[in-house]
Design a protein that fits this description.
The protein is α+β, with helices and mostly antiparallel strands. The chain is about 20% helix and about 20% strand. The chain has 12 helices and 25 strands. About 5% of the residues have low confidence.
C-alpha cells in the first residue's frame, strides 16, 4: 500500500507503487529519498505517526512523525507557534538523550513539502497498557521490577535537566528482544534546571496521570515520579482513567488516592511498597521523593514494619468511598446447570435426475446436553458460560479442504484444558450492563455487540472481571477453534457444508461446497440458529470474534497447550475467527483466520469471552 503524506488528503491510501495520489494528485515517493511509509500508526490534532522502512538501513523499521496541525489549529497563531515549539523540542530531547539504551534514537529531523518530520527508532514490543489488557493486573514483584527498570531511566533524563511530563501506560513499551522497558514520546518533554519549576502557563500531560502542579503549568522531577506512581497503581488495580481524564481511584472530596481497596482478590501488597507509592502520590511536591535515586534507595532498604494499630473508622470510610466500586466475591462461585439442545449435521447427498445426478443437502438432527453456569450482570441481564471439556484436536485445515488459505497451516495437535466459553457472542444488553454504552451499528438488545475494537473487547473483559471477581478474557485462537469444531473434523461443526438456514452469512457468494442461499445484510439475534455439539451458538457467521493472540502468518512454533500465543508475531494485528453476516461460507469455516489492526471497529466485528 502507498500512502499520500498530504495532510489535507481525504483518501491517503493508494495501491502499491502508485506514483501520484489518486485522491489529491500529490507525488508519492520516498520521504527524503530514504523513508518508505508502510502504514499509519496514529493521528492527533498536531499530525500523524507512521510505521516506515529506512531503505538506507536495509529497510529497518522506524517511526515517522509528521507535524501537520489540523486546519482549525493552523488558524490560531498562538497555538500553532506553541505546537511547533514542542515538536522541535522533541527532536532536541531525543538527540540529547540518545545515549540511553531505553530511550528511542533520533534518526532524522527535516522539513519537506511544507511539513516537519521527525524519524526515530522503532521499538518492537507491547505498551504497558497492552500488557495489562492481555495479562491482567500486576503483582508486587512485577511492580518492583518495573520501578527498578524505569527509575534509572528517569534519573538519567532528570540529570540532563529534562522532565518527561507524560509518563503513562501508553508511553512505556516492553521491548520484545530483551524485556526491558523503553520510555517513548518526548513530545511534551521540557528542559528544566534541577528542581526549578518549568515556566508556568502551559498545561501539558495526560489528565488522570498528571499531578496538580503540572495541570497548573509547573513541573518538577517529582512530577514525573508522581505519574509513574499513578501508572503503578493502575497496573495493580486494573482501573484505567476515564475518557474525560478523571481517575476512579482518586477521591476528589478527600483529595487523595484510594487504591488499596481496589486491589484484585489475592493481590496483596507489602506495607513498604504501600508507603512508597503513597509518598509518591502526595499532592504536595515537597512531601514526595525528590529524585528517582531516592525511590530506588527506599525500594532497596529494609522493609518498613507495619504499625499494629488498626485503621480508624474515618480511614475505613475513606477507603470505601469510591465511585461505582466493583463487586468482588471472595472466591468465584459456579452453580452448574444442564441444558438440552438440538444439534444438526449437514451432508451432501446425490440423486438421479434424468441422465445425470443432482446434489442436495441431507439433514440429521440429534439431541445433546451441556453444562453451564450463569453470571448475573444486573437484575435483567445474565451471561451464560458453557463448560468445555478437556480435549485434543487437530488445529488447521487439511490440504483437501475447499477454501483453505496459507494461514491455516501446518496442521498440528493441540491439547486444550477445560474452560468456560460464553454461550453466545457478547450481546448489546450484556455490553450495556458492563460498559454503560452501545456502539453497535445494528441495534437490538439480543443482537451481538459489534463495531468493537480489540482494545475495547479487552476493556470489557477487564471490567467484567472487576465486577465478578473472576478472570474473564478473550479466548486463544486454539481455544476458539477447539470450541468451534466441537470434536468434529469437517470444515464446519455442522458438517461438510453450511447453509443460510442454519447460520447468518452471505449465501449469495459461491464458495466451498455449500449451496447458495440468502444474504440478510445485517446481524440477527444471538441463538437464532442451532448450537454446535458443545452447546455454543453462532460460531459460524453472524460476527467475527476477536482472539487474544498476536497475529502469526502460520502455525510454525505455535503453542501446543492451547495457551494464548503472545511471543513473536505482528503486534499490530490480532486474529479474528468465525466469519460474519457479510462473508461467504469459506470465511465461516472452523479453521479460517482473519487478521485486522487491533484498533479496527466495524459492524462485522464482535467477540465472546472465556474463563479458565
Amino acid at each position: 500500500m502507498s500512502y499520500c503524506l498530504n495532510p489535507d488528503c481525504e483518501r491517503p491510501q493508494n495501491p502499491p507503487d502508485t506514483k501520484f495520489c489518486q485522491s489529491c494528485g500529490q507525488a508519492i515517493a520516498l520521504l527524503r529519498g530514504r523513508f518508505r511509509i508502510v502504514r499509519p500508526l496514529g493521528q492527533g490534532g498536531f499530525g500523524k505517526t507512521y510505521l516506515a522502512e529506512d531503505v538506507d538501513r536495509r529497510n529497518a523499521a522506524c517511526v515517522v512523525k509528521q507535524f501537520a496541525p489540523a486546519p482549525e489549529l493552523r488558524s490560531n497563531p498562538q497555538i500553532l507557534e506553541k505546537a511547533t515549539e514542542l515538536f522541535n523540542q522533541e527532536a532536541e530531547r531525543l538527540l540529547q538523550l540518545e545515549e540511553h539504551p531505553q530511550i528511542p534514537t533520533l534518526l532524522a529531523y527535516f522539513e519537506e513539502n511544507a511539513c516537519l518530520y521527525l524519524v526515530q527508532q522503532f521499538i518492537k514490543g507491547q505498551t504497558l497498557k497492552e500488557e495489562l489488557e492481555l495479562e491482567g493486573t500486576f503483582t508486587e514483584s512485577k511492580i518492583r521490577e518495573l520501578l527498578k527498570d524505569l527509575l534509572p531511566v528517569l534519573q538519567f533524563i532528570h540529570d540532563h535537566n529534562v522532565i518527561h511530563r507524560d509518563i503513562k501506560l501508553e508511553n512505556i513499551i516492553r521491548r520484545q528482544t530483551d524485556g526491558k522497558l523503553v520510555l517513548i514520546d518526548f513530545g511534551v518533554a521540557r528542559k528544566g534546571t534541577g528542581n526549578i519549576a518549568t515556566q508556568a502557563g502551559t498545561t501539558v500531560g495526560t489528565p488522570g496521570y498528571a499531578p496538580l502542579e503540572q495541570l497548573r503549568g509547573k513541573t518538577y522531577p517529582a512530577s514525573d515520579l508522581y505519574s509513574l506512581a499513578v501508572t503503578c497503581i493502575i497496573l495493580l488495580t486494573g482501573w484505567l482513567p476515564e475518557d474525560d481524564g478523571t481517575n476512579p481511584l482518586y477521591d476528589d472530596l478527600e483529595g487523595r488516592w484510594l487504591w488499596r481497596s481496589q486491589l484484585p482478590p489475592g493481590n496483596d501488597i507489602s506495607w513498604q511498597l504501600e508507603q512508597i507509592l503513597d509518598r509518591l502520590l502526595s499532592n504536595l511536591v515537597k512531601e514526595r521523593y525528590q529524585s528517582a535515586e531516592e525511590v530506588l534507595a527506599a525500594l532497596n532498604s529494609q522493609a518498613i514494619p507495619k504499625p499494629a494499630s488498626p485503621p480508624t473508622m474515618a480511614q475505613l470510610a475513606g477507603e470505601a468511598r469510591i465511585a461505582n466500586p466493583p463487586i468482588r466475591p471472595t472466591a468465584p462461585i459456579f452453580i452448574i446447570e444442564h441444558f438440552d439442545f438440538e444439534v444438526i449435521t449437514l451432508k451432501i447427498g446425490y440423486k438421479s435426475v434424468g441422465s445425470g445426478t443432482k446434489g442436495f443437502v441431507k439433514k440429521f438432527i440429534r439431541v445433546a446436553e451441556a453444562e453451564f453456569f450463569t453470571e448475573e450482570l444486573n437484575d435483567e441481564v445474565n451471561l451464560e458460560m458453557v463448560s468445555l471439556p478437556r480435549g485434543t484436536f487437530t488445529m488447521g485445515s487439511p490440504p483437501t479442504e475447499v477454501g483453505r488459505t496459507k494461514f491455516e497451516l501446518p496442521q498440528h495437535q493441540v491439547n486444550i484444558s477445560p474452560l468456560f466459553l460464553s454461550k453466545y457472542p457478547i450481546t448489546q444488553a450484556q455490553w450495556q450492563a458492563v460498559m454503560g454504552n452501545n456502539p453497535s451499528r445494528f441495534k437490538g438488545s439480543k443482537r451481538p455487540v459489534e463495531s468493537i475494537s480489540w482494545y475495547k473487547a479487552q476493556e470489557f473483559c477487564q471490567k467484567l472481571s472487576q465486577k465478578t471477581g473472576k478472570n474473564y478474557r478473550l479466548p486463544s485462537e486454539a481455544e476458539w477453534e477447539y470450541a468451534a469444531r466441537a470434536e468434529t473434523t469437517t470444515p464446519f461443526s455442522l458438517g461438510e457444508v453450511i447453509t443460510t438456514e442454519f447460520a447468518n452469512f452471505n449465501g449469495t457468494q459461491s464458495s466451498t461446497l455449500s449451496p447458495p442461499g440468502i444474504y440478510r445484510q445485517e446481524t440477527t439475534d444471538v441463538g437464532s440458529f442451532r448450537a454446535n455439539p458443545f452447546g455454543l451458538y453462532d460460531m459460524h457467521g453472524l460476527v467475527w470474534e476477536w482472539c487474544g493472540d498476536t497475529w502469526h502468518d502460520n502455525y510454525n512454533n505455535a503453542p501446543t497447550d492451547g495457551s494464548t500465543w503472545l511471543y513473536g508475531g505482528n503486534l499490530t494485528f490480532r486474529p479474528l475467527r468465525g466469519g460474519s453476516w457479510n462473508d461467504d461460507a469459506a470465511c465461516c469455516r472452523s479453521a479460517h483466520r482473519l487478521k485486522l489492526d487491533l484498533g479496527t471497529k466495524l459492524g462485522i466485528i464482535g467477540f465472546r469471552v472465556a474463563l479458565s
